[in-house]
Amino acid sequence: MALYSTDAGGALLAHALHSQVCMHADFGGVVPELASRDHIRRLVPLLRQVLANSACSVTDLDAIAYTQGPGLAGALLVGAAFAEALATALGVPTVPVHHLEGHLLSPLLSSKPPRFPFVALLVSGGHSQLMRVTGVGEYELLGETLDDAAGEAFDKTAKLLGLGYPGGPALAALADTGRPGQVKLPRPMLQTPDLDFSFSGLKTAVLVKVRELATISDQQRADIARGFQDAIVEVLVSKSLRAVKVCGLQQLVVAGGVGANRELRRQLDAHALAARIAVFYPELEFCTDNGAMIALAGALRLQAGGAGKLPGAFAVRPRWPLTGA
Ligand code: KG4
Ligand code: ZN
Where in the cell is it found (predicted)? Predict the structure, then answer.
């Protein structure tokens, strides 16, 4: 949850995050019912916390932004109901926000933000897309994954290697101890002329490698993790830079949980420098899901001339393409 002020060019006044990772870890993944019940418990304390941290009162709120979708219906409903109820009580408008728009605009929270237009690589647990971003609300889909998202591929491969939830960071840490070039995996769709991705075959290739080995040593497991990460990073870097060139632009924004991956950042920085492309990342804390990016997206929508919505009736959109937002 976050408070964002549009005064003086815009500033994040306070933000707080309650992670449910520990709660879900015992189950090896997100349990939707537990997630939404825990949302109910956390919202009021989080609101109190951000108000206290910013020395604001609830009556200082001019509008309330919340995630309308896409995502788990139960969790979305809790957030939407809370925001709409609070806005009704305060008599202020609401701004239902697309979750991916929050990720897409999150680098604007940093001290050195990109300028419109730019290309964005959105790599989260549920999405892998390349977007041309011309302005707030002006998004053109350039390419996307045909099957698994990059984060999903990290999570599933981590599971195959016996790592816990969440898999992405655990697999990345293991890959650090792996030897480069020891395990060679395919680079799916690297050479295709489009800007699409496909990651499900990579996970299957890892499964085949694991099955080939009767027993697997720690070093072999790390080498496989390294081979997987190198393959996925090479494809993401190549297609992202190609997208920037195709659009005739000079800026690339990387957003979503996989954007926290250090090897992806290293390789992107190196290749972008050679191609004279500037790469922008959100601060690490704003890479994975957070309230600050939703507050920012809501504020920018209002600033761009949106009046917000009358508080009260609402609907959530568990499935919602960004280009239709
Ligand atoms: O954007 P996000 O926090 O939530 C969604 O909207 O999905 O992304 C979560 C995804 C998960 O799949 C997680 O494993 C992955 O981002 N992730 C990473 C890293 N940190 C998070 N994947 C690779 N390397 C990381 N360091
Ligand atoms: Zn997300």
Answer: Cytoplasm
